[in-house]
């Protein structure tokens, strides 16, 4: 298995994180919901949803929780690290209406992404093409079923689908489109507590335990985004 890390500095709209985005490829696990439910659960992460993604979406981030996503079916491009600068979906997806920088990753079944709180992300160019919808029972903040594991395996997968999980005990995830917070407020996103275990690799230093070193954020001093970029 290969773990690739991407460092994404803050932008004018998006806080991103001092911790790197992690991309896990080559897991010898069938891309089946119950398989990842078992893996994430034993490592202290709670599965909360399966979404099917449409052709595109607005770039967004979660300010209160770290997020782990695994691709179950289909393929797509995921853009990380930058915000959209227009409400025109074609222009901010395929045109120039987005911030400079970021990284784009071609996602396929079995890929796992670990997003530190604040990481901007946007899924587009999905295949097979389908409408965006929540497939798992519940409201996206938990699996509303007596047997969540069994319920996940009963979800019919079509189009590009991902399963999402969050650390046990973390705050409920939110969804922000960028620009709501000023730079001073970015620091509250950067101090979301580090998880106790990696969702895939538990306490191995090959995962977040080694790749997310403890970061001392100076909460008394605001730095301009370009100054922080030079330190990451």
UniProtKB/TrEMBL annotation:
Gene3D superfamilies hit by this protein: Jelly Rolls
Domain of life: Eukaryota
Parts of the chain that traverse the membrane: none
Domain Cupin type-1: 60-136
SUPFAM superfamilies per UniProt: RmlC-like cupins (SSF51182)
InterPro entries, alphabetized: Cupin_1, RmlC-like_jellyroll, RmlC_Cupin_sf, YjiB-like
Name of the protein: Cupin type-1 domain-containing protein
Organism, as annotated: Capronia coronata CBS 617.96
């Amino acid at each position: 298995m290969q773990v690739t890390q991407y460092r994404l500095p803050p932008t004018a709209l998006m806080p991103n994180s001092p911790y790197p985005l992690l991309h896990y490829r080559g897991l010898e696990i069938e891309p089946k919901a119950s398989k990842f439910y078992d893996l994430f659960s034993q490592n202290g992460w709670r599965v909360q949803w399966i979404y099917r993604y449409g052709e595109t979406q607005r770039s967004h981030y979660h300010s209160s929780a770290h997020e782990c996503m695994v691709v179950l079916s289909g393929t797509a491009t995921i853009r990380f690290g930058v915000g959209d600068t227009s409400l025109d979906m074609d222009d901010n997806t395929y045109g120039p209406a987005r911030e400079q920088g970021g990284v784009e990753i071609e996602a396929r079944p079995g890929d796992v992404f670990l997003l530190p709180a604040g990481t901007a992300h946007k899924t587009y160019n999905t295949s097979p093409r389908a409408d965006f919808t929540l497939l798992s029972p519940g409201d996206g903040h938990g699996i509303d079923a007596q047997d969540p594991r069994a319920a996940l395996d009963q979800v019919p997968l079509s189009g590009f689908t991902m399963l999402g999980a969050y650390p046990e005990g973390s705050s409920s995830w939110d969804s922000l489109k960028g620009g709501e917070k000023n730079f001073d407020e970015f620091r509250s996103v950067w101090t979301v507590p580090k998880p106790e275990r990696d969702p895939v690799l538990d306490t191995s230093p090959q995962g977040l335990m080694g790749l997310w070193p403890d970061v001392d954020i100076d909460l008394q001093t605001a730095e301009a985004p370009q100054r922080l970029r030079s330190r990451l």
